[in-house]
Design a protein that fits this description.
Layout: H1 7-18, H2 22-34, E1 37-38, H3 39-45, H4 50-62, E2 66-71, E3 74-79, H5 81-96
Antiparallel strand pairs: 1-3, 2-3
Helix pairs in contact: 1-4, 1-5, 2-4
Length: 104
């Protein structure tokens, strides 16, 4: 019988996976600054092909960091602030558990 991971650990791992690429961090930062965006606009500010940006947005949505709402022929993306609110104390708790190292 395998032990089941606590929900907070699964959530933290899912969000960290979403943050696991510099392009996704840049997209998330852009969405936070814009407080919402259309996919085409994201492509304008990223040095990546539209298909690559779409793939990164898919991962961000799967991780819960981004929400996408269909508005006619486009999808409007925004940051899921509920995810960030839950993520912040969990990552801070994880960092507090890491022992400080002495500098040489």
């Amino acid at each position: 019988m395998s032990a089941r991971l606590p929900d907070d650990e699964l959530f933290l791992a899912r969000v960290c996976k979403g943050l696991g690429h510099p392009a996704r961090i840049r997209i998330l930062s852009h969405l936070m600054a814009e407080d919402g965006c259309v996919c085409g606009r994201i492509v304008e500010v990223m040095p990546l092909a539209q298909s690559t940006v779409s793939q990164h947005l898919k991962v961000l949505k799967e991780s819960g960091l981004v929400r996408g709402e269909v508005e006619g022929p486009r999808t409007c993306y925004c940051v899921n602030r509920d995810t960030l609110t839950r993520f912040a104390p969990l990552i801070q708790g994880l960092l507090r558990a890491v022992p400080e190292t002495e500098e040489a």
